[in-house]
């Protein structure tokens, strides 16, 4: 096992947790909790997303550390175009996550705390749209990484 293999292992582990978690939240949990009343549904989302977002922070730290370690082995200038594409879309994904964390995620927690379900539903809707966007971008990034695609 080389250093590169270890970095690749941590990188793919982080990708699995982040993109897999979004696929589960968006594709499985979201349609299933539609039957619950807003009070229960939004409180459940706060409990679920609070745990998931902690995992995403860890995944981001691992992705950045392992990704830049692998990039530095060859140097940014000599890295294949697909790696540049992955770095770009990966950084956009991180920016979108930050926009959720500092925006609607904060509003959702406050709304649930004061039992303002209408405001909570608006915040949750924004989170859902941005997670769908990041899920799609995650798939594009995996395609760039594995199929060698660059735009
Ligand atoms: C944000 C900064 C990122 C950097 C600097 C980065 C950099 C790298 C590098 C240098 C490799 C090694 C490629 C190889 O050995 O062939 C790699 C592999 C990979 N990356 Fe990233 N990456 C980043 C983010 C992401 C994200 C967000 C995803 C997916 C959502 C992703 C998915 C992958 C996958 C699936 C591989 C394995 C490719 C393979 O071995 O064929 N990366 N990354």
TrEMBL record:
Signal sequence bounds: none
GO cellular component: membrane
InterPro entries: Cu-R_CopD_dom
Transmembrane segments: 6-30, 42-69, 81-102, 131-150
Cited Pfam families: CopD
Keywords noted in UniProt: Membrane, Transmembrane, Transmembrane helix
Domain Copper resistance protein D: 47-145
Name under which the protein is recorded: Putative membrane protein
Source organism of this protein record: Azoarcus indigens
């Amino acid at each position: 096992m080389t250093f590169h293999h270890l970095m690749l292992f941590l990188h793919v582990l982080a990708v699995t947790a982040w993109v897999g978690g979004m696929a589960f939240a968006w594709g499985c949990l979201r349609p299933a909790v539609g039957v619950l009343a807003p009070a229960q549904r939004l409180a459940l989302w706060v409990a679920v997303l609070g745990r998931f977002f902690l995992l995403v922070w860890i995944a981001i730290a691992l992705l950045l550390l392992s990704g830049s370690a692998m990039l530095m082995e060859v140097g940014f200038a000599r890295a294949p175009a697909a790696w540049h594409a992955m770095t770009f879309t990966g950084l956009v994904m991180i920016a979108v996550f930050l926009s959720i964390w500092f925006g609607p995620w904060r509003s959702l927690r406050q709304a649930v705390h004061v039992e303002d379900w209408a405001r909570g539903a608006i915040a949750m809707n924004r989170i859902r749209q941005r997670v769908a966007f990041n899920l799609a971008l995650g798939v594009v990034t995996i395609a760039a990484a594995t199929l060698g695609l660059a735009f």
